[in-house]
């Protein structure tokens, strides 16, 4: 049930789908999300509309830095979250991106916080 939002610099437009695929593959392999549970939003931004600090925490980021926001049900361990971050970074570096350029943020919620249509809370 995760909802993934990918905020990418316009320069990565041609890699948007492979990036989305790589993030989904990480969710499936690292934390056991079902392969058919895929909901993603991809937003492309001009350089002036995607502001990511180039040195925060001493990590040198390039103009190809991107943001991965994942909304998912709460309850996963710190170890699983770390495995997810590592899998996302590994999958994106396999596409030629830099691990330094991958910012991931998780937002946890609970079962009543989801509606998949029909105005219903299907998990309640």
From TrEMBL:
| Pfam families noted in UniProt | Tautomerase_2 (PF14552)
Q: Which residues form the signal peptide?
A: none
- InterPro entries in the cross-refs: Tauto_MSAD, Tautomerase/MIF_sf
Q: What is this protein called?
A: Tautomerase family protein
Provenance organism: Elstera cyanobacteriorum
């Amino acid at each position: 049930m995760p909802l993934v939002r990918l905020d990418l610099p316009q320069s990565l437009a041609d890699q948007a789908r492979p990036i989305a695929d790589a993030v989904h593959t990480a969710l499936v392999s690292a934390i056991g999300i079902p392969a058919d549970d895929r909901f993603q939003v991809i937003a492309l931004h001009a350089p002036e509309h995607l502001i990511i600090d180039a040195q925060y925490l001493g990590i040198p980021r390039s103009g190809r830095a991107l943001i991965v926001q994942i909304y998912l049900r709460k309850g996963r361990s710190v170890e699983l979250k770390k495995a997810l971050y590592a899998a996302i970074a590994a999958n994106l570096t396999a596409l030629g991106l830099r691990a330094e350029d991958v910012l991931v943020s998780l937002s946890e919620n609970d079962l009543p916080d989801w509606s998949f249509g029909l105005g219903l809370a299907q998990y309640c």
